[in-house]
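Quick start: read one record
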Amino acid sequence: MMLGVVQACGGGGTRTVPTSPGSATLTAPVPETPINDAQLDTLRPTLTVRNATSTESGSKTYDFQVSDRSDFATTIISQTGLAEGSGTTSFTPSVDLQASMRIYWRARAHQAGSSSPWSTTAQFQTRIGGFNRAGELFDPLTNGQTIGQRAGSTTFMGEQGLRVDNTTSWVKYQLAQTLTSGEISVEVTGLYPNHPGEKSRIFSMADGTPRLFDSAYLFNVQYRGLNGNPPNAISFKLLHGGEAFKYEPDFGQRADGVRALNPGTTYLWAATWGSTFRLVVREGGAAGAVIYDRSMPTAGTYNPTPHTVYLGATDANIESGSWPGAIYRNLWVGSGPRPATAGR
């Protein structure tokens, strides 16, 4: 309750009387840091606003909202009742935010029953890192780390990503849940024409069967080599539960997919599956020109349990195995499309 001072009637004294609640008028606090989509190196950033002003004296408290949506339809964190600091007020989450995410935040002030407008919305990006949760997996591979399991010989190449050094090496991921439809996409460099492999795999998926070739849910994407029938063809093969539901390009379709790739160029390889399989390759990354695009309708259901994903493949002893020397970064596997911010 606020107290007001009034002149007493018929005398020279004054007295104090309570004023109505909510009489203060407050300006919105102003976000100071982090702002402007800043890339942070932490998962628990300190959010700071310049304090609101008020037409009344007295203490204020602040609310902070944190969301992965700019409209704040849902919030990740909602903190209320923070005491005002001197000049600025700050809030640090008590739990980690998700890695590699764009985060939006805002704040407002309260005083004596009045509330300020929400501040303008500020945004930042959390520390780059991988995650594997229900419905989506992301692994940047550019920070000397992976959330996958490395097998054989693999080499971190700084910001270029992770290199799979030979045909018998790979990186394995087990998804948090089976995805009967979705997208797998990854940026790849180091690919070149006329390499020795026949059906070298860029990436593959299966049901946990140790050797990809034996899986009823075999799924692989290839950049073929000299004996590729024809050489240098982009191709793929998938099984929806067995040979009765097999999908792959015929020779004529593979011939249409012959490409001479440049080892110094980054290519985004993106495959989607469900009622239709589609493979798209872009030259220059996610925003680059499409150099390959083939799709075909599929019957049956892709339902591997557990759902495993590989950079490369586990079948070098019977097929061509992994693409030796391929360098990977920004792997996405999800029930939805690749986020535009993946790898920023």
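The chain has two domains: 24-125, 131-334.
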